[in-house]
Amino acid sequence: MSYLFPPVATVGLPVAGTADQFPVRRVYCVGRNYAAHAREMGFDPDREPPFFFCKPNDPESIVPVPAGEAVTIPYPAQTSNYHYEIELVVAIGKGGRDIPVEQAAGHIFGYAVGLDMTRRDLQMTMREMGRPWEIGKAFDYSAPVGVLHPLSQTGEINAGAIELTVDGETRQNSDLTHLIWSVSEVIAKLSTLFELQPGDLIFTGTPEGVGAVKTGERMVARIDGLSPITVDVV
């Protein structure tokens, strides 16, 4: 069998301390998983169960960020309100369905720093119309992701500072303890909706302070214990 044209290449993320690459299968994202961010978006976090959306897993969407390097991403078309959202990214190393919360950590391969870049004006328009978010969330270069740090080296990550700066000015500053739904709870819930597989990534939500970034600005995203990422908008 031959293909009519070359199939899309698998995206590989660097793994700390090795020459190996983590092959990305699917990219799941959790919406409004920090109370303060839910409030700044106009929602009551106490009444909102976790919900999910997806990003593409192709090389035009996932942007690997090697340790100690800066990458560039283009300012996207059809938006005038391009937002950053720093997130803890969880990489799944062991698949499963209906995973109990107390066993969820056993399915984690590792963790990374990620950015859920968002065309906020397009997302809000779709939200107001009751339509899907894809044009606001699932566009090209929408998911920079840093080096993966294996759980075997970090242990479970349930706490730690999470911070994003733009041109040196702090814009987001919180702690992973402020997640409404913990990493294990997110994995457990997601596994009731999809059978998770090795290679899946989960963006676990962003804290308050989201805002616009402009062409020529530099974002630096940091989470305690993980390799930071530096991303320039061009």
From TrEMBL:
InterPro entries: Fumarylacetoacetase-like_C, Fumarylacetoacetase_C_sf. Keywords: Hydrolase, Metal-binding. The keyword Lipid metabolism does not apply. It holds the Pfam family FAA_hydrolase. Residues 27-233 form the Fumarylacetoacetase-like C-terminal domain. One of its GO terms (molecular function) is metal ion binding. This is Fumarylacetoacetate hydrolase. It comes from Crenobacter luteus. The lineage of its organism: Bacteria, Pseudomonadati, Pseudomonadota, Betaproteobacteria, Neisseriales.
